[in-house]
Amino acid sequence: MNDVISQYSVKEQPYYRSVTDEVALYEAAYSVRMPMMLKGPTGCGKTRFVEYMAWKLGKPLITVACNEDMTASDLVGRFLLDASGTRWQDGPLAIAARHGAICYLDEVVEARQDTTVVIHPLTDARRVLPLEKKGELIQAHPDFQLVISYNPGYQSLMKDLKQSTKQRFGALDFNYPDHEIETEIVSHETRVSQDVASKLVSIAERARNLKGHGLDEGISTRMLIYAGSLIASGVDPMSACRMTLVRPITDDPDMRDALDAAVSTFF
Ligand code: ADP
Question: In this predicted complex, what is the ipTM?
């Protein structure tokens, strides 16, 4: 591995609790370098899963959090001006394609339309990335793989991936895991007892049932980990839950009362 890419290697094994057969399916997909789409709500383990898979496969991982201002140049690269003139700088996608990393585009639908166009030639048999401004065609390294995440809940008619893009990916569904598994994850990540972790998961389950009835998104595993970390550091559970589970997701007074009541049922 050369210097450019070695900084992206996943050195320590990330903790990942598998939920079904996603690890084996991903390995099979990687073996044929199939582009993958990880579908599911925010904070349910998609990023952790890719980190774990990159570590397991021994491949570097380049993660890009996409946002609405992101353009194709941010991904592919651009000419920079410096004292000696102009020089080309590869963007994260070009680095991954050139040197053989797994490139994870988190929430790619957020990025501008031109970004999804540049990934197309990398996702079919050609496996190329045209650097139009530079006049270069990168033939992707044999180890390169493209992975995107997609939250089906957020998409609107204005902002969705086109069918022609979706059909270029294999997809794995992610969701908040079953009670026992999520309890195990929260307890492992925060060091709170199984009992406290289980109560946190129960609060989340109540909130998730309110999704679509006044809540846009339920309480995620990530939020439970915030709550657990505060509790583990000595914060009173009720205050910890209010701060990390209730206040961030709603401003509606009735919904806050309903969620606070759910918290006080368990703590
Ligand atoms: P996403 O990418 O779906 O938004 P993340 O992968 O960042 O979510 O997950 C949020 C946090 O939840 C992670 O940092 C990790 O601590 C925890 N987590 C969720 N699912 C798992 C899992 N299956 N195994 C281990 N940790 C998990």
Answer: 0.99
pLDDT in tens, the chain (267 residues): 678 899 999 999 999 999 999 999 999 999 999 999 999 999 999 999 999 999 999 999 999 999 989 999 999 999 999 888 999 999 999 999 999 999 999 998 888 888 888 999 999 999 999 999 999 999 999 999 999 999 887 665 567 788 888 999 999 999 999 999 999 999 999 999 999 999 999 999 999 999 888 888 889 999 999 999 999 999 999 999 999 999 999 999 999 999 999 999 999
- Closest C-alpha residue for ligand 1 atom 25: 16
Q: How far is the CA of 247 from the centre of ligand 1 (A)?
A: 21
Closest by Cα among 69, 88, 98, 95 to 132? 88
For residue 225 and ligand 1, the question of a CB distance below 6 A is answered with yes
Distances in Å between the Cα of 15 and the Cα atoms of 51, 124, 143, 172, 185 are 9, 32, 23, 19, 9
d(CA 32, CA 214): 43
Which of 12, 37, 42, 44 should be mutated for ligand 1, with most atoms under 8 A from CB?
44
Q: Is the CB of 189 under 6 A from ligand 1?
A: yes
The phi-psi region of residue 257 (left if phi > 0; otherwise alpha if psi is between -120 and 50; otherwise beta) is: alpha
Residue written as token pair 């370098």 = 33
- 10, 191, 222, 224: residue to mutate for ligand 1 pocket, most atoms within 8 A of CB: 222
Q: Does the C-beta of 48 come closer than 6 Å to ligand 1? A: yes
